Amino acid sequence: MLVGLDLETFPFSPGNMAPPVVCVSIKIDDEEPRLYSVSEALPVLSDLLNKAGNKQAIIIGHHIAYDMACIASQYPQLIPAVFKAYDNDGIADTMLNAKLVDLAKGEIAKSYALDKVLAEYTNFSISKDVDIRTGYDALADKPINEWPAEAVKYALDDTRYLIELYRKQHELAEKELPDLFYCAPRECRSAFALQLM
């Protein structure tokens, strides 16, 4: 099972690199992505992290270390499941994958933002409107069904294409850079440890 995961949070700041979660966007395999409130997300995240920790799922994110740090902060009861998922290679990061590909080719991109990486590997495009991206804290006390349509779309789009991006990165690696991603789980664990500092 492949799972796309992304969070929208309060803004981060120095000394607050795992701010409170506002919503969780999840896409499972080829299903449509779904948006969960903070309270709705807890049992879903618990189930998915347990599956990832038992090698039954891979949870994919773009700079997922940030998302996992926020999950651990928001839901401390999930901390053991987060670490087990990392320990059992159940977490994957499309941003780190893009960096590994570029390093193997001797290149460095100017930006590894999701919209840029998606454009490089797929035919998909998404909007990364700064006002929407940084304004989710204003929606924290509202039910999702009362949110502006563009805020819902933005959150869902962040997971809509993650699985396809992950697949495209692995297809490219298999064709052009065999064994490139053997170290990817270790890189994910390192990025998570650095995010926690």
Short description:
The chain has 197 residues and is of the alpha/beta class. The chain is 51% helix and 14% strand.
What descriptive keywords fit this protein?
single chain, 197 residues, alpha/beta, Nucleotidyltransferase, domain 5, 5-stranded mixed beta sheet, 5 strands, 51% helix, globular
Question: Could you describe the 3D structure shown?
Answer:
The chain has 197 residues and is an alpha/beta fold. The chain has a single domain (2-196), classed as 2-Layer Sandwich (Nucleotidyltransferase, domain 5), CATH 3.30.420. 51% of the residues lie in helices and 14% in strands. The chain has nine helices and five strands. The chain has helices at 38-53, 64-74, 79-87, 94-105, 114-121, 130-133, 149-160, 162-176, 184-196; strands at 2-9, 21-28, 34-37, 58-61, 91-93. Strands 3-2-1-4-5 form a five-stranded mixed β-sheet, with helices on both faces. Strand 2 (21-28) and strand 3 (34-37) form a beta hairpin. Helix 2 (64-74) packs across helix 9 (184-196) and helix 4 (94-105) packs parallel to helix 8.
Share in helix: 40-55%
Largest sheet: 5 strands, mixed
Give the averaged pLDDT, no decimals. Answer: 94
> What is the CATH top level name?
Alpha Beta
Report the order of strands and helices: EEEHEHHEHHHHHH
Superfamily (CATH H level) name? Ribonuclease H-like superfamily/Ribonuclease H
CATH architecture title = 2-Layer Sandwich
Question: What is the first-to-last residue Cα distance?
Answer: 30 Å
The helix count comes to 9
